[in-house]
Amino acid sequence: MGYDSHVWTTYWNHRSVRFRLRYFIEKESTDDVLQGAGDEVYVSALGVDSSTVRVQPDGTHSAPVLHGAEIGDVSDDDVRDPWREHPHVLMEFDLDEDGPWPRSYTTTLVLIEHDNGDLRDGFDARYAAFGKEIRSAIVSAVESAGRVITGAIVSSAIGALAGAVFDALNDRVDPGAGRGPCGDLDYADGAGRGPL
């Protein structure tokens, strides 16, 4: 880094990387008349810090997946409006974690439209299914790379899951929830691929 007072001041005062929510816009409600005028949407996240992916003494790999706190109903103005001035921290990663540099910090959003059923069960089922798939993809990528652990390998493994793999997992966890990992929300390209 050299001696740059701005760099060092920033490092010492900001020891984490944060994924923040500044607002939430609901494109359209999928609720019928009996369920009310708007969807009740809850958000959480799964996060991976590549520096925490490690080789264990037995030769296997650990790939911890963090859970963000659930928040909702994010389509309610009372919940989302304050984020304009004070963005909500959904996921936070510690820069002081031991491990190799360069590293990656990856966040996968988990959205649930809650009409009926147990919200806790819905999040737990998604955490288990998506977390297992994320861990498996990371371990496979690291082993394919000759056991080299880099931020690029970890983030690429997770990125490869976006779209079809997460869609299939979501359909297994909650059949009929809608296409894509975001349930009833549509993708930008209208074909179930690509970012929102």
Continuous helix count: 5
Which class do the helix and strand fractions yield? alpha+beta
Q: What is the ordering of alpha helices and beta strands?
A: HEEEEEEHEEHHH
Q: Oligomerization state of this entry? A: single chain
Q: How much helicity do the residues have?
A: 25-40%
Output the radius of gyration.
19 Å
Biggest β-sheet strands, sense, barrel: 4 strands, antiparallel
- Separation, N- and C-terminal Cα atoms: 36 Å
Strand content: 15-25%
Beta strand count:
8
Question: Shape, please?
Answer: globular
What does this structure look like?
The chain is 30% helix and 20% strand. α3 crosses α4. It is globular. The longest helix is centred in the C-terminal third of the chain and has 26 residues, at 119-144. The two termini are 36 Å apart. Residues 179-196 have low confidence and may be disordered. The strands form three sheets. Strands 2, 5, 6 and 8 form a four-stranded antiparallel beta sheet that branches. It has a two-stranded antiparallel sheet with strand order 1-7. The chain has a two-stranded antiparallel sheet with strand order 3-4. With 196 residues, the chain is α+β, with helices and mostly antiparallel strands. The relative contact order is 0.16.
